[in-house]
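Z., the sequence and structure:
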Amino acid sequence: MSTLSATSAPPPRTSPRAATRDPARLALWGSRAALGLLTIGGLGMALLDVSLSMTTQMVGYLIGMVALNLPHGGYEHFENLRHRRTSFSLRYIGLYLTFLAGFVGFFFVAPVAALALAFTTAVVKGGHGGLKVMDALCGTDHLQQTWQRGLAAFVRGGAIMLVPLLAWPGVYTMFSTYMVHIFDAGATLPLTTHLTEAQILVGTVYGGAVGAHLGGGLYTGGPSAAWWTDVAETSLLIAYFTFVPMMLAVGLYFPLWYTLRQTARTTAISEDAPAPDRLSLPLTWAAMVLGALVTFGLMAGFYVLVPNPMGGVGLLAGAVAFYTVFVCLLALPHIVVGDWLDQARGIWYVP
């Protein structure tokens, strides 16, 4: 029977067996093409000094995050739980709801610290989840040590939350403030009062991490195909979050990169899935229905309970801030329970 316990790093993948499977390969290349085209568009707008209105960015953000990405989060749990025993699924759901309740409480007690944890969670989700895609489809022969894998996850995930702070500081601090004001209208973010210092620190740490990650991979594995793929994808992510306007970039990253690539990973390892027990599938469907009810119930309840649900701003900007906090609440147990505590499989399973 599967148990929930800490995971250990898998060995590096030198020959991704799924790389020749057409659906997985198409999804993988689709993610690269989507972000590549958006990056070229963003770069072209910068060169022509053309700006994209904030209204357009926020609409794009909500479409990407709500309509396209949220359903995939539920599917990741469905795909994981449908292969498990009933007793495991019940423990899994119970732990998820426990972590979720704890994170909600943390936001009410210490919204600034909770927001920092939420941003860290986004880094972990994009980075650690992306590392598992590399294991399954791209190869990780250049990542021989645990610290190298951690650095790779930090660099890829950091592109989501750290690069925009350097490239779009005004938008970054503005929406961060809106999110904190949902809970405390008088709160001031340390980031807004020490922005220059924060940018210098972030730029130094992240730039050093990128150099150490790619340089260390070259030293360890040489100029292998996996290393060159890593260089290209890492460069693409950094360029994407540098040139594509921030709100649109974040909103489209998850459906067009994270979701497409996790779909490719799922397709690639589908033949390795163990057979579920006879009660697992009905329980999993019940869990999805319960999850949907809990999700929308939490959203409605959250709106009623928080002191300032729109963050003191207009409807569209407030909706973006409110939904961002909401999805952050779901993300932490998604990672901790969905993968880290699941030794046998997990939402980012690679055999």
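The chain has a mean pLDDT of 87. Residues 253 and 260 are 10 Å apart (CA to CA).

Let me know what you think.
H.
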